[in-house]
Design a protein that fits this description.
The chain is built from eleven helices and two strands; from the N terminus they run H-H-H-H-H-H-H-H-H-H-E-E-H. It is mostly helical. It has a two-stranded antiparallel sheet. Helix 8 crosses helix 11.
């Protein structure tokens, strides 16, 4: 890259990694202290090696994702370096390094490699935004990326397809407009429970909001809930783009 690479510090730390995470060390310590009979007494060292190897590979996968994304953003990074003062750009690099360390911690304890990749996408796209890096915002969205399943993200993307244009243009979508677009989607009846579960989870993270039913609906009516996209949900999906062309 033509600009200072904030990945180098974390990569050096990764190459020197020889200890599992704090939580895993506690598990290993507890296992080691138990008087386990054969054949379990020979298992602890293999568990330790596997934990260390898995952590290493997850962090490497996150770093590779970040490198792939930043390689598509070289022009943006060069523009930022030229347009910002040396102090501003140095602050950006320092913020990126702090987020990389935090992202590495999150990735190391994330089971799904797809979620690890999402952490990397959010981090990489977050640090090249033209405005000043909001570390709290990126840290929070990386945490959300750890918790959402592939299915949760699928339905969030569906909602962005339906309502994202209005949210992007006005900062919000009107309730009735959101309701009509949700109804026009014609969700498969057999999927309604799955959709409800995913959207309830998305609502818990502030990505979507449940739409109150119309006033003319009888309270006894068996009517499935509908949902509207919130700006945070659109922002989350925007940060999951894999290249500048997406």
């Amino acid at each position: 890259m033509a600009v200072d690479d904030p990945l180098e510090a974390l990569q050096r730390e990764l190459d020197e990694l020889n200890e599992p995470g704090t939580a895993n060390k506690a598990v290993l310590s507890a296992l080691s202290s138990l008087p386990l009979p054969w054949p379990f007494n020979a298992t602890v060292e293999r568990i330790k090696d596997r934990i260390q190897s898995d952590e290493y590979e997850r962090i490497r996968a996150m770093i590779q994702t970040i490198k792939d994304v930043l390689s598509n953003h070289e022009e943006i990074l060069e523009h930022l370096q030229q347009s910002e003062s040396p102090e501003q750009f140095a602050a950006r690099v320092e913020a990126a390094q702090r987020l990389l360390v935090d992202g590495g911690r999150k990735a190391s304890v994330t089971r799904s490699m797809e979620r690890v990749k999402r952490i990397g996408l959010i981090l990489a796209n977050g640090i090249v935004q033209r405005e000043r890096i909001d570390e709290d915002d990126i840290e929070e969205l990386m945490r959300v990326a750890r918790e959402l399943t592939d299915l949760d993200v699928f339905y969030l993307r569906e909602l962005v397809q339906m309502q994202g244009g209005a949210v992007r243009a006005s900062g919000r979508i009107e309730r009735y407009q959101a309701y009509r677009r949700w109804e026009d989607q014609r969700w498969p009846t057999r999927k309604l429970g799955e959709i409800e579960s995913a959207c309830n989870k998305l609502e818990g993270y502030g990505l979507v909001s449940k739409i109150p039913p119309p006033n003319n609906i009888n309270i006894m009516a068996d009517m499935p809930n509908s949902y509207m996209l919130l700006p945070k949900g659109l922002h989350f999906v925007d940060l999951l783009t894999e290249s500048s062309e997406d």
